[in-house]
Design brief:
With 568 residues, the protein is α/β, with parallel strands linked by helices. It is built from 17 helices and 23 strands. β5, α2 and β6 form a beta-alpha-beta unit. α1 packs parallel to α2, α5 crosses α9 and α11 packs across α16.
Amino acid sequence: MTMKAGTEATLLVHKDTRGGVLTCREGLSFWGGVDPDTGVIIDTHHPDHGASLAGRIVLMPTSRGSCSGSGVLLQLARNGQAPAALVFREPEDILTLGAIISARLFNRPIAVLRLPAEIYEVLSRAGEAEIKGYTLHFSGRQIELSRPESRGLALSPRDRDMLEGKDGAARQLAMEVLCLMAAAQGAKELIDVSRAHIDGCILAHDANLDFAEKMDELGAKTVIPTTINAISVDRENWQGQGVPAEFGGKASRLADAYVNMGARPTFTCAPYLLDDVPEEDEAIGWSESNAVIYANSVLGARTQKHPDYLDLFVAITGRAPNTGVYLAENRKPVCEVRVAVPVAFDDALWPMLGWLAGARSPAGIPVLTGLEHLSPTPDDLKALCAAFGTTSAAPMVHVGGHTPEGDLPLAADAGLLEITLDDLRQLWREFNAGDDRIDLVAIGSPHASLAETRRFAEFLDGRHCHEGLRTIVTVGRNTLAGMQAGGIVDRLQAAGVQVLPDLCWCSITEPVFPKDAAVIMTNSGKYAHYGKGLTGRNMRFGSLEDCAEAALTGRAKPGLPSWLTEGR
């Protein structure tokens, strides 16, 4: 039986393939959620944890989480462990871009489809499926697939020059991919962006290095101010930290490739902590999920959550598809998430709210209400945005009374959801699965701010960390300079705390990450979510003060915090 689904059943990346069907019950971040060498789901919070994606027709509503998922997919394709196909029900950019790069630069295509809900649901119950030409076959059905067309895209004369190769091979490739992504996203034009932020500079696998060096060899150069994310080593000091020469050399080459292409060596996953930050309504081209969400939500700037590799293409052209939250109408909240606020609380509340808000609204932009009477700090909102990005694919979150667009009217069909005290208690238990004995205290995911490091030093109050326990704070170079000027580095080092620039907890590896650490304590909802899958270690979570107390005593407080026991 042939079913005609019109233009809705779309083949975004072509490859003839077949395989068994695996339907993921919710979206998945490939970075931090999938082993790049085996294709096994390592996100311990995901309902399909432990399943293998290799060689399967993988269905999920859309992806979520880190922009770096595109690089993980490229690595899987290069080592023969990629899915046979990826099938989405909703718009998706990160893995789609990874598949495009895999096909165009490395001749390793991975089929990518987007299906209407009714066909997606029928396919999810099939045992096997096959893509042959422009037809999807399963369970005796044949679904005709269309291709996105970029011929109707309105291009400027400058765009056409780049597309025709007049500005060199690198910009030609960049413009070709930007046009493909624009067509897949339904954009009608490209727009100018004022600045970019590069995310794909972590040596999580060799695919990132190969891509960057290939683009550098092609002569890629940025045309707008461009910052660069945290990397995998302390760029100036790794040789004295026991880092293997091969790994340190590759990580340095990866960073150097982007710097050679014109990126500033900022090496921070929190570019909003730099001195020059985007203004409200400024169109920018950022990657790195927490940075994108903070820029849109807290600063009021405008950027899509650009996948790794597309961020470079934006930087070397100064152009981006005019779609998604670049458009005012797409920034409206699709649901209200009403929060039951505890009578008293500490800063651990904010990353928990971000994580839960993302779980309540995994694909759309929510507005959090019930918080209007509170006074969150920039660090509180930073923590909320970072944790939100682990559970939601949305590029922003509104907080009523506290973010620039927090009073936008709800979409006409918006729903009402809740975050209760019981939800907070349950998440606390999930985040605190490790033993009470702590081996490592991890601060700086995303990179710690100057205010955060000052508060941490104040909580330590001149005392020394527990013997045998390691405490590490990761920061950007700009913050480190402020810490040095204010004497904060000296105070922390006197307490036994190690301060590391350039790398962060998403990229740290042994032996800089202590080999014998079995339980990690963090104040980051992002790291509490990803840490177990990234390191194999058990996690504990708490406020910044909780982390300081754990650093001093070697123990995490058992049970729920006092602010979550009230009213029980």
